[in-house]
Design a protein that fits this description.
There is one protein chain. It is built from nine helices and eight strands. With 260 residues, it is of the alpha+beta class. It folds into two domains: 111 residues, no CATH class; 136 residues, Alpha-Beta Plaits (2-Layer Sandwich), CATH 3.30.70.270. It has a four-stranded antiparallel beta sheet with strand order 4-5-3-8, with helices on both faces. A two-stranded antiparallel sheet has the order 1-2. A two-stranded antiparallel ribbon has the order 6-7. Helix 1 packs across helix 2 and helix 3 runs antiparallel to helix 4. The N and C termini lie far apart (49 Å).
Length: 260
């Protein structure tokens, strides 16, 4: 597979890794969209090679994760035996293996759960760690955040600048204490907390937004500013995620209207 096609496929994988479910139709839609953006002409052989490469890469990550988890379990069993037999040499060997495995698993989890562009958690992390069967596991608050006029930024300055804006938003949201930020989709983000009430989250995000509005972004000789709209909704354990998200979404659009 040529380098241009491999880069296109890697971009597609990067995009779909944020989705909790990846159907072939979704993969193809993203793949063709990226090809159009990059002005790459594809024939049937290209499409087949790219699909095979993508599947192999995704499967490799999943297989490595499963192998590491299996090895970790085996080490735990061996450690129990070594403790029973008071075999210090075996325990030292197992400890070294455990350290190596923990590092490897952490690296694999980053591949699976971290959005490459913003370095925030992605949708997969949200659906596997915070939710169970689309329902929250604990009580907390959810803020739905949407960058204002992001399409205009992409259309005016290009996708590279758009990506830089997303990266900056990721850095800003990651700094908010006692919260966890997630890149949900495109220019949409979630913030989850079980340490703040709604008023506190509102004040925090108002302050973040105010400071962001005062920060100039420069592209060539042109200066522009960014800000976001947000809505906050509380949830309890076993609440349906989509219902809570819709509630936050409504409040976010009310906020967006108030800016006009």
């Amino acid at each position: 597979m040529n380098k241009q096609l491999q880069e296109l496929t890697d971009l597609t994988i990067k995009e779909i890794r944020n989705l909790e479910i990846v159907l072939p139709e979704i993969y193809q839609d993203v793949f063709y969209s990226k090809a159009k953006e990059l002005e790459i002409n594809l024939d049937d052989i290209d499409k087949e090679a790219a699909m095979l490469y993508a599947l192999q890469k995704i499967q490799l990550i999943q297989n490595e994760t499963e192998r590491s988890a299996s090895a970790l379990k085996e080490n735990v069993v061996n450690a129990r035996i070594a403790i029973t037999n008071k075999d210090n040499m075996a325990l030292q060997f197992i400890e070294n293996n455990m350290i190596e495995l923990e590092s490897k698993i952490a690296s694999l989890q980053e591949e699976l759960y971290i959005d490459e562009l913003t370095r925030l958690y992605n949708r997969r992390w949200l659906f596997e760690k915070i939710l169970r069967d689309d329902h929250f596991q604990n009580n907390g608050l959810l803020a739905f955040i949407d960058i204002n006029k992001f399409k205009n930024i992409n259309d005016t300055f290009g996708h590279i600048i758009g990506d830089k804006v997303l990266h900056v938003i990721g850095k800003v949201l990651k700094k908010v204490k006692d919260t966890t930020a997630v890149r949900f989709a495109g220019d949409e983000f979630l913030m989850i907390s079980d340490q703040h009430d709604e008023d506190e989250i509102h004040k925090i995000l108002h302050t973040v937004n105010y400071n962001l509005k005062k920060t100039p972004f420069k592209h060539n000789q042109e200066i522009f500013y960014i800000d976001f709209s947000f809505g906050v909704a509380s949830f309890k354990a076993k609440d349906n995620f989509k219902s809570v998200l819709e509630n936050a979404d409504i409040k976010m659009y009310d906020y967006k209207k108030s800016l006009r």
